[in-house]
Amino acid sequence: MPAVVSHRSLASEASPEDYGYYPDPLEHATGREKKMLLARLAGDDRYEPKVYYRAETSTKERPNLVPSHFPDRIVGCMCEPDSGHVNFMIIRKGVPKRCECGHWFKAIDADPESV
């Protein structure tokens, strides 16, 4: 009985003309997700995490100010520049809080236009 040998050809690259193009996420998004995508395209990054650089030195009287629309805010402090660990803490409006590294943070009212 003769052996049947079949060869399978492998495509190295799929042609968009043959298989179609990837759909645009904006075409399928609805509700909150679509609002976020449209805002990002318009240059509004309010939904993206913000990076605030702390001052070289901070004290209880002159803390790093973090804008917030809410009474509390979660802040992450990278105590050492080459550290892989982020020290997270909850700060409250009007109450300065000290990080383990000695830097001070305080939440303040954010600009209402940034909502």
TrEMBL record:
Query: What keywords are assigned to this protein?
Result: Metal-binding, Zinc
InterPro entries recorded for this chain? Answer: Cyt_c_oxidase_su5b, Cyt_c_oxidase_su5b_sf
Q: Which residues bind Zn(2+)?
A: 77, 79, 99, 101
The record's annotation in CDD domains points to:
Cyt_c_Oxidase_Vb
| Keyword ATP-binding annotated | no
Mention one GO molecular function.
metal ion binding
**What superkingdom does the record give?**
Eukaryota
A biological process from GO = mitochondrial electron transport, cytochrome c to oxygen
Question: Listed GO cellular component terms?
Answer: mitochondrial envelope; respiratory chain complex IV
Where in this protein does the record put region Disordered?
Answer: 1-22
Matching entries from PANTHER family are given as: CYTOCHROME C OXIDASE SUBUNIT 5B, ISOFORM A-RELATED, CYTOCHROME C OXIDASE SUBUNIT 5B, MITOCHONDRIAL
This chain belongs to the protein called Cytochrome c oxidase subunit Vb
